[in-house]
Design brief:
Layout lengths: L12 H15 L11 E6 L5 H12 L3 E5 L1 H4 L7 H11 L2 E5 L3 H10 L4 E3 L7 H15 L6 E5 L4 H12 L3 E5 L8 H10 L6 E5 L2 H5 L4 E4 L11 H7 L7 H4 L7 E4 L21 H19 L1
Parallel strand pairs: 1-2, 1-3, 3-4, 5-6, 5-8, 6-7, 8-9
Length: about 300
């Protein structure tokens, strides 16, 4: 059977650590020709810097050939039915990397595909980001198991995938969100079930100060994601008091590290200059998109 990576839990929790170990090997200079002669199609309906760059370069490092298709070229579900696009790409390429709006779109695509399909971001999950996130935590702390991670902000797609990743590796994640913006109940329950065997735990609070108390990692994301621009004013009001700044980091562990999946909006979810605070590891985190995804493609192929 073809294995897809549409949501983080498509990887069994016991498979995460070996995948991260391989990502770190590749980052350390290990060579691989796993995609030698293979083609990887990047089909994106949303703008991208890190995702497009990391998949493009990662494909080349594994000996493969990347091909980028923009929304205008394909018209996924408009110019052509989703299933037809999946079938055509499956006949010519070896992996499809899809960034789209709805999770149902990528699931429909994967149902029709006969090659591995990777979720490069949907409104429901951002699983490749979460792989890079936990790789970064492993590099910084040695292990995610037993680590205390705080996520401040919207219980969005990034938060969902991070919940599964941290819980699956035995870490403890606390999310601080205002009422109405919490992690969906089904995802909270799912992440805790996914992490039960490894001792992982995901909890929620409305108080950022409670979430960061003693935290090894403090993570945040934008308050308004792509496609939510018409909600900006309402979200800015709802998230007042949830900005991550040096004073909030001071309430965490003395050795705390700060993470953000980028792009950031200084003055909103973070204070000006926080990306360059000595505690920030956001650019290590960004680089690890390359290595985590290379290891993932190697595994799927």
């Amino acid at each position: 059977m073809v294995q897809h990576f549409l949501k983080f839990s498509d990887i069994a929790s016991g498979e995460i650590q070996p995948l991260l170990a391989r990502a770190i090997e590749l980052k350390s200079g290990a060579s691989s020709n796993a995609l030698g002669g293979a083609s990887v199609v990047l089909l994106f309906e949303k703008p991208s810097l890190r995702t497009k760059l990391s998949f493009w370069i990662g494909t080349g490092k594994l000996g493969g050939d990347p091909l980028y298709l923009s929304p205008e070229e394909v018209g996924l579900g408009t110019r052509e039915p989703v299933a037809d696009v999946a079938k055509v790409i499956s006949r010519m390429a070896d992996i499809a990397v899809v960034r789209t709006f709805s999770q149902s779109t990528i699931e429909e695509f994967a149902d029709a595909a006969t090659i591995p399909v990777i979720n490069a971001l949907t409104d429901a999950e951002h699983p490749c980001q979460a792989l890079a996130d936990v790789q970064t935590i492993v590099e910084q702390l040695g292990s995610v198991e037993g680590a205390s991670v705080a996520f401040i902000g919207d219980g969005n797609n990034t938060a969902v995938s991070l919940s599964y990743a941290v819980a699956g590796l035995g870490g403890h994640l606390t999310l601080a969100s205002p009422g109405g913006y919490e992690l969906p109940a089904a995802q909270l329950e799912g992440a805790n079930a996914y992490g039960s065997a490894s001792g992982g735990l995901v909890t929620q609070t409305t108080r950022p100060q409670d979430a960061v108390s003693g935290a090894d990692i403090v993570y945040t994301d934008v308050w308004t994601s792509m496609g939510q621009e018409d909600e900006t004013a309402r979200r800015l009001a709802a998230f007042d008091g949830y900005q991550v700044d040096p004073a909030l980091l001071d309430q965490a562990s003395p050795n705390v590290k700060f993470m953000h999946d980028l792009p950031a909006h200084p003055g909103e979810e973070i204070s000006d200059g926080l990306l360059h605070d000595p505690r920030s590891i956001v650019f290590d985190q960004a680089e690890n998109r390359l290595w985590a995804q290379a290891a993932l493609m190697e595994k799927l192929i």
